[in-house]
Write a structure and sequence with these properties.
With 734 residues, the protein is an alpha/beta fold. It has 19 helices and 27 strands. Bound molecules: beta-D-glucopyranose. Beta-D-glucopyranose (BGC) binds next to loops.
Amino acid sequence: MKKLKTALFCLIVGTGLQASAQTIKPIYLDNTKPIEERVGNALSLMTLEEKVEMCYAQSKFSSKGVPRLGIPEVWTDDGPHGVREEVFWNEWGGAHWTNDSCTAFPALTCLAATFNPETAHLYGISVGEEARYRNKTVLLGPGVNIYRTPLNGRNFEYMGEDPYLSSRIVIPYIQGVQQNGVAACVKHYALNNQEEWRGHINVNLSDRALHEIYLPAFKAAVEEGKVWAIMGAYNQLRGQHCCHNDLLLNKILKTDWKFDGVVISDWGGVHNTDQAVNNGLDLEMGTYTNGLTTNGSLPYSEYYLANPFLRGIKSGKYNVEMLNNKVSRILRMIFHTTMSPNRPYGKFVSPEHSDAARRIAEEGIVLLKNDNRFFPISAGKYQKIAVIGDNSTRSLTVGGGSSSLKAQYEVSPLAGLIAKYGKDQIVYSKGYASGQMKYGHEETSKQNADSLMNAAVETAKNADVVLFFGGLNKNHFQDSEGSDRKTYNLPFGQDKLIEALLKVNKNIAVILVSGNAVAMPWVKDVHAIVQSWYLGSEAGNAIANVLSGAVNPSGKLPFSFPKKLEDNAAHSYGTLSYPGDSINEYYKEDILVGYRWFDTKKIAPQFAFGFGLSYTTFEYGKIVTDKKTYSIDETIKVSFTLKNSGKADGAEAVQVYASQSKASVMRPAKELKAFKKVYLKAGEAQTVELEVKVKDLAFFNEKTHSWTVEPGEFILCNAASSSDVKSSVILQVY
Ligand code: BGC
């Protein structure tokens, strides 16, 4: 009886306590309350010092929360192709954990080459799950800087040359990441389109180029992707560093686009307290570390947004509202992520992630040339397949700067091909050597180039077919952060090697592993060319599936391949246009970037934007629109038939481009306005339907500083690439 009474007492008191705990639960912890109310409440409970402490780093990748209130720290991590290993508190170096080896997903160039927003969603979900499992608040990616020059060392981390394609791909990536309760951080805002002098180069360009070419993907990330964080770029725009640039951050991002998330600096991208306070930066990271390789020379408390900010507020120099605004943004992001009750648990290196990585890779590989049906090579077709080239064995998930990954595994192309064809069918020779990957400097190989070449020639001589795996790698001066490429040509003597191989065996295909276009002096001489990107953990399996025909390639180029460097718009204007004079750089090509330049100036590229072959063939019907005339607020419904006229099932990324017949300003010959990946069985036909909003036919009007659609005649065409137009239709806008 006594026991029962005690139990009853406990129950009553317990329930009462629970009730009173509930009633006194502060609003910021109450998930049923609107987020803005929670933010306001948390702010009201914080001291000035606690607020300032949230605005700058406490370690290499993290910033403080408010431990007294149970508000967690913010933990960021690279991004964008997988979740980077843990590093020491105050160093870039890996901390040698044994539980942080991730799945490496394909590079974003590959994702863009899929031309498939659904695949981008799969990518975002998968990498977001890995970031969530590792308990990250922010994944530092994706990157959407526009491909302006093939020399940019970081193009492999971005989504190509077209603002529309990158906009459509970035949105689902962000949504996929963020549905895991992890913030995506779209980067590098903006105009970090080269690595050379990236820390200070001052970009000069027209408002039109800024809005039409370089900002749309960021805008889509904010307005449609609802991204929770954005990273400022290292470079300057019009005399101000982008991490505290009034125009980019206060005016465009926060006022025009109504961004309510966090502006995070690139690591070491902040240079001035007044500007950091007033020009829209919220969270300062990586200062006094050059953003790169060295340890801090000053403590975190001396960051621009640390004690100097606090002192400024106390002395009345800075308005406390500025501080509250920054902290509100950080709190909002924390409520969306680590303090969200709906945060799932994530997954790490799961079979689903390997599967996703492989599928994305398979879908992004681009078949550029395939004479006499060189590919697919079915098992048993050849007795001896020579696999030649350093990129068939080299780890390519490692290197390249901040996107370098400690992958749990990486299937090399050679391993993938051996698994596919059997070890007795494959002979391997390295062919060329490219040295160790070292961040920040080039280390040339000590191996003898001639003997490597001679051995490869011998191997090729005795083989039925040669698969040459070359391209670039993640070394300094290749596809790497912190440096641009020095030349457009293939490095490490590969052109010479291909020439030598051709002399002994004509049955040769080149598989380029790179995130950039390269010169191809041998383009006519080889039977087949495949553009393979940095494909991550599943690289070898994906390549073997495509080369053997288990998967029919459907990737298309997200950027043009010029025949020679001077054919590229930025380069055709000389060094002031790229790379600049070390202080200033002028984007003289203006809006004519990528295929906009090639088409308008009638320069034939080596391979056009949007181009990619398949093992089957597709027949396009004539494009039609639902009407002939449209008002500005209407949507044009476009349709045409697409038939798989070949013998294999396959997918085609169909593209719709628009042009204006007569305009008051120069307009490019055509611009991508819609695309779709269409899957068709052999012999199957389908009516493809796409939509183009009339307002998307606008140009950025520098006179009125707004988007303008000029009434008149427009032409829409359906195309298999920017240089392969199938048919067109004329319509009027009134
Ligand atoms: C890079 C960023 C990266 C950051 C943190 C910087 O050097 O530019 O993209 O997220 O380092 O590693």
